[in-house]
Amino acid sequence: MRRAALPPFLAAALAACGAAGAQDLPQPVFLPLKGAAPGAFSYARLSDIQVFLDASPTRCSVILVNGEEIRAFQRCAEITSRLSHDGFLSLPSSFGSALLAPGFVTSLISQSDGFCRLNLRNGRWIPARLPCDAVRETLEGR
């Protein structure tokens, strides 16, 4: 678990949550995400992205603020490597990591396997391969 930087595309959304501003780096308006067919792409507006989650060894789930999920057929690191990560948190997940803005987390639910489920403002949830105490400490910056 480590603190990463908040992408500039979420600075405006997180400002409403009281989060610190991000670096002023130029970013594209839409982020290209590889589709299932070769050469096919989906696009997500950067300002609407809330979470990047490694959902399998070859797929990244991009969760939007409205709860919609876009499945990218590539690793999340490949997508996020071109972006700034100011203020984002990286938590371990079953297939890699989850990169999320902490201001969107509403609750932490302990699961029967000892790991934590993070509930988000949009009604979605994401798994973390850590106990909730460790996730809470990470969210609180300890």
Description:
The chain has helices at 11-15, 76-80, 132-139, and strands at residues 2-3, 30-34, 41-45, 49-56, 59-64, 69-72, 89-93, 96-100, 105-110, 116-120, 125-128. It is mostly beta strands. The strands form 3 sheets. It has a 6-stranded antiparallel beta sheet with strand order 1-7-8-4-5-6, covered by helices on one side. A 3-stranded antiparallel beta sheet has the order 9-10-11, covered by helices on one side. The longest helix has 8 residues, at 132-139. It is globular.
What is the typical, i.e. mean, pLDDT?
A: 83
For the largest sheet, list the strands in their spatial order.
1-7-8-4-5-6
Radius of gyration: 14 Å
Distance from first to last alpha carbon: 11 Å
Strand content: 35-45%
The portion of residues assigned to helices is: 10-25%
Low-pLDDT residue spans:
1-23
Q: How many strands, which pairing sense, and closed or not: the largest β-sheet?
A: 6 strands, antiparallel
Element pattern in H and E: EHEEEEEHEEEEEH
Summing up helix and strand content along with how strands pair, one would put the structural category as: mainly beta
Number of strands: 11
- Count of runs of 4 or more consecutive helical residues: 3
3D shape? globular
